[in-house]
Amino acid sequence: MFENSVFGVTITPDAPNGKGRVAIDNVGVQYGLDALQGGAITPEQFTDLNAKVGGIDIDGNFVAQRTAADPAALEILYATGRVNSATGAADIPEIDDRTRGQGDDTGFHPAVHSFSYRARLDKANGNHDNQVIWLSRDDVLPPSQFDLMRQWLDALAADTSAAPQGEKVRRARPASLADTCFMAGGVRADLTCNGTWRHYGTPRLAAGAPLSLDVVKCRLKPLARADYGDVTFSDAQWAQLQAAFPTGVCDYSQPGVSQHPPKARWLTFADGPGGRALGPAPAAAEIAAGGVSGSVPATLALTLGAPAGFGAFAPGVEKDYTASTTADVVSTAGDAALRVSEPGRLINGAFALPEPLRVELSKASWTAPVSHDRVAITFRQHIGAGDALRTGTYATRLTFTLSTTMP
Q1: Rounded to two decimals, what is the model's pTM?
Q2: Which of 36, 252, 329, 391 is surrounded by the most beta carbons within 10 Å?
Q3: C-alpha to C-alpha distance for 353 and 394, rounded to whole angstroms
Q4: SS3 for 366?
Q5: In total, how many domains does the chain have?
Q6: 62-63 and 55-56: which strand pairing?
Q7: Over the stretch 316-353, which tens digit does the pLDDT of each residue have?
């Protein structure tokens, strides 16, 4: 629905209520041109490929004929910035992060687009001072781009505040930020990763398109044998090429059809296809610093669950008994520790069990504030077959202490 709002619809025999306008095109694209000129494929293979490549329809189905873009869709495509021309990016610091395996061209957004976007920056602005590309190999963890971006933005803000009013400030990226391939052993290499990596291409690049990949529908030139240099086509092959390219082949020395900068940076499509500018961005007449605060009282809270019980001990039977309860810990301190007093032995009047009671805590220390952290407390008591047991209840009192050295 969003794309229909951008491009509008066109009526077709199979869609009387309209379908989105086609904004893709491969008329005149010479697939495999670089491979032909490099000797990787033969003239026969090149001819056969381009005679049979076909295209896709608006629903993504393969069709025998090549795909021709809707002229209105092409105009809207560039006017609304669907193809990012980079004309509005000269003053926007950017770190293009393709680390941790994102540079291997295995996903939906291959790494070549980092470099095609850079080509658009160079084309629109004369440089790419605002862009850094990061790669990594062997799953190496790069530095925090957020910390470095903050340094870049802070430096830019400082330059802006020091500049005369109304003067535009543009700051090159800091020296600490550069194109880098992070490799094992702390090695920082160039964007070839010391000759071990390069991005893949695309079918359009292999057909002679510029690295900027910003030509959606190419302008055409006549098919000419002289354009193929030393490549020789038979008369039958040439006739097949003429049939495949009846209107000519792509001339990438010219801008694409309808290619021009966007009409505005911010658009609304409330009025329908094509969009219109939203108008000037809101401006702050005055900026004042303010703040709000709140305090936290020093708190150490320890709450024990229900009293634990072993149940009935069986005289004359060797067995390990287990009982449990929980403790709930709340601490606002920088650290905290939970301790339990020496448990000793369970006592029944004047009688005590031969084996001492054991107490285990699932957690006994914290290095940061916690809220309602649940601690499991396990009690263990061993009864031997020869232990003499007195009728009644064996019990003891324990003291649990939550303390801190950093209130």
Answers
A1: 0.65
A2: 36
A3: 8
A4: strand
A5: 3
A6: antiparallel
A7: 999 999 999 999 999 999 999 999 999 999 999 999 99
